[in-house]
Amino acid sequence: MTASTIAIPPARRPRGNGRLPWGSPATYFGALVVIGLMLAPIGYIIIGGFRTNAQITADPSGLPSPWAIGNYSEVLASTTFWGEVANSTVAAVVTTVGVVALGLMASYVLARYRFRARGLLYATFAAGLMFPMTVAITPLYLVVRNLGLTNSLAGIILPQIAFALPATIIILVPFLRAIPDELEEAASIDGCSRLGFFWRMVVPLAMPGVITVGILAFIASWNSYMLPLFILNHEASYTLPLGVQAFASQYSVDTAKVLAFTSLSMIPALIFFSIFERRIVGGLTGAVKG
Amino acid sequence: MNVRTSTPATQRGALADGVRVGDESSPTPRRVAAPAPSVARRGRPDWRKAFEIALLVGPALVVFLGFVIFPVVMAGYYGFFSWKGYGPPTDFVGLQNYVTILQDPTFHEALWHNAVIVVMSLVLQGPLALLLALLLNRPMRGQSVIRVLIFVPYVLAEVVVGTGWSLMLQSNGAVNGLLEKIGLGALAQDWLSNPDLAIWTLMGIITWKYIGFAVILFLAGLQGIPQELTEAAQIDGASYWQIQRRITLPLLGPTLRIWAFLSIIGSLQLFDLVYIIWGQYIASTAGTSTMATYMVANGRNAGNFGYGNAVAVVLFIISLIVALIYQRYVLRRDTAGALTERSER
Predict the structure, then answer these.
(1) Residue A78 covered by a domain
(2) Sequence-distant (≥ 6) Cβ neighbours of residue A230 within 8 angstroms
(3) Which residues cross the membrane (chain B) (predicted)?
């Protein structure tokens, strides 16, 4: 993962040997200062977890001396932490699968079937963009409660899928529309039904869009705070964001341990981001532009 | 729901045509999947097509209507009741909830904070992100890594950001410690609970967290500006800043306007960071409460679900009005093409 292999968004390369020139020192200095400001707080959280409370009290902004791994090992040994990791993972994975499956199916119809209510249907889904979860959260809680889904992961997964659908459909429909009609004709001459065409051709061809949509859904679910706050009230059903907050208030005097817990909880998101950064950054810009 | 009501009509129309197509004995009359989609789909009594549409759209539509549209509609309904959330709402109070909201000084404060956050987000993040995007758009080695690193705070959970910053900003926290260390101890502040300062602290955190998104967006916009324009200007003797001022900035207009729109809507709905750092009670005394934190504190947490729903409706209407005004007067040029293209398809 070196500088020359990542391009986000595909940077304009000067003609020639394809390597970018070195910028001026002033440019690098400016960039370095900005990156320092962006990463210093994250570094503080991670490094702070390696200190003891006595060290933090004596010098809040110092470096660990000696490095103490007790905080991290205690958090890693706790079943609460792993339970919350499991809850967050299940919620994020199921949400992602659900968003992709439902979104792809609906987008396929909206992109490639001709029927009278298509415009209305598209407008209905697109209207969902106007209703952020903040507006609907109170009645949404009541709906989930009436379904008996409070304190269960299904209670956050279903609303998350629903609220991710509008953006998903808006991203995917142009994608599916771009698949040439000739391809569908060829497939149908070879005896492929429309549903068969969906499975055999559309799903593989739509993969880039699907990955973008899936990543956005996964990160939104992983970081989601307001919905779990309303729906999940038992510690056993907490996802990581609720867990971090509960831990921070429970151990409010044990700053070092809170820092360790917080930094461990962001590691999965950071790993996920470093694997998919190109897609995430590209997907966000594409989603907004498109 | 829409599928059900619409398909019979389509089929009735299609039925008459279907007979005719069958009589013409096309080479593959029995094939269910139409060979030439655009032509033949119209001309068949296509129960199968209706079934496919229902099968494919049905699940998404049910989930979407059930968990997005239904709650939003119910928010409007519950807002007219004084209701604790148990049993069906019976205590109809008309517009009383709305009158209370609009007369509540606490809500006025929250509204004012939202307004400050909207304006300051634009004023702080816009120019800063533009400068950063211009800086990172200069061809240089390592730019991709730099772009990714600037984006990292945006990907972190609000809870992580909020917890981390609230520990660092405590009066005996790392920020004050660092200030003392470098000899600026006089600048040490009670960042979080001083009511004159807290909203600026919040603005700092918001800028830190969300500026990466603006930078990436602007960079994408900059990539779309043809290089020939800047090259031509260079040949004509324009300086770097003249080029940015006269060519880049105007051409970046659509990107800037879309970003501003997203930023405004996000600022109006702001909840997570405030609620995590200041909690429901301290937010109003520290001067950082927003409409959304007001809604949660006075609605669900107080057990007044009718009132909470009314606040949600007010929040929605304010956002909608702002969005419509913005669309009408600022985004009109940008979306005109996109909307007409969409409707004609």
Answers:
(1) no
(2) A137, A140, A141, B300
(3) 51-80, 111-136, 148-168, 197-220, 256-278, 305-326
B106-344: which CATH topology?
MetI-like fold (1.10.3720)
- Test B38 with A288 for CB contact under 8 angstroms: no
Displacement of CA A167 from its chain's centroid (Å): 13
Q: Which helix (H) or strand (E) holds A115?
A: none
Interface touch A143/B71, C-beta < 8 Å: yes
Out of B143, B208, B319, the one facing A11 most closely (by C-beta) is B143
Taking the model in full, what pTM does it have? 0.79
Whether residues A60 and B42 touch (CB distance < 8 A) is answered with: no
Structural domain range at position A103: 92-238
Q: What is the pLDDT of residues B155-189, one digit of tens each?
A: 888 888 988 888 888 877 777 777 777 777 677 77
User: Look-up: residue for tokens 């410690």?
Assistant: B177
In the A/B pair of chains, how many CB contacts fall below 8 A? 336
Burial of A19 (0-12, 13-18, 19+ CB in 10 A): exposed
ipTM above 0.90, yes or no: no
pLDDT at position A14: 46
* Chain B touched by A285 (CB under 8 Å): yes
How far apart are the C-alpha atoms of B75 and A110, rounded to whole Å? 29
B77-113 pLDDT tens trace: 888 888 887 777 777 877 888 888 888 888 888 899 9
Compute the nearest-CA separation of A193 from chain B (Å): 5
Which of A33, A115, A179 is the best residue to mutate to test the B interface, defined by the most B CB atoms within 10 Å of its own CB? A115
pLDDT tens string A161-220: 999 888 888 888 888 887 888 887 888 888 888 778 888 888 888 887 788 788 888 888
**Number of structural domains found in chain A:** 1
Segments of chain B assigned to CATH 1.10.3720.10: 106-344
**Picking from A206-210, B30-34, B44-48, B255-259, which range would have the lowest pLDDT averaged per residue?**
B30-34
Please, which pLDDT band fits residue A285 given cuts at 50, 70 and 90? low
Domain presence at residue A155: yes
Q: Please name the residue ranges forming H helices in A49-132.
A: 53-58, 70-77, 79-112, 118-127
Pick the residue from chain B with its C-alpha nearest to A26: B135
Q: Do B141 and A8 touch (CB under 8 A)?
A: no
Give residue B345's pLDDT.
Answer: 36
Does the distance separating the beta carbons of A34 and B150 come in below 8 Å?
yes
> Which residues does chain B have within 8 Å of residue A7's beta carbon, measured at their own beta carbons?
144
Q: Which amino acid does the sequence have at B4?
A: R
What residues contact B197, with CB distance under 8 A and at least 6 apart?
B189, B190, B191
The number of beta carbons lying within 10 Å of the beta carbon of residue B58 is 17
Yes or no, beta carbons of A110 and B320 under 8 Å apart? no
**pLDDT higher than 90, residue B239:** no
List A residues 113-142 in contact with B (Cβ-Cβ < 8 A).
113-117, 119-121, 124-125, 128, 130-132, 134-142
B16–chain A nearest CA distance, Å: 16
CATH number at residue A183: 1.10.3720.10
